[in-house]
Amino acid sequence: MSSNKAPKNCVFYRNQNWIYPRIEKGEGIYLIGENGKKYIDGCSGSAVANIGHGNKEIAEFAKGHIERIAFTHLSRWTVDSIEKCAEKIVSWCPKGLNHVYFVSGGSEATETAMKMARQYYVERDGNKSSKWKIISKWNSYHGATLGSLSMTGTIGRRKIYDPLLTNFPKISQFYHYRNPWGARTLEETSILAAKELETEIQRHGSDNIAAFISEPVVGSAAPGSHPEKIYFDMVREICDKYDILFIMDEVMAGSGRTGKKMASNHFDAKPDIIVVAKGLSSGYTPIGAAVCSSEVFETIMVRGSGNFIHGHTYAGNPLSCGIANKVMEIIERDKFIENCAVQGNYLMKKLEDLYNYPIVGDIRGKGLMIGVEFVKDQETKEPFDVFSNVRGKITNNCLEEGLVPYPGGGSVDGVRGDHILLAPPINITKEEVDLLYEKLEKAIKKTS
Ligand code: PLP
Question: ipTM more than 0.85?
Answer without folding.
Answer: yes
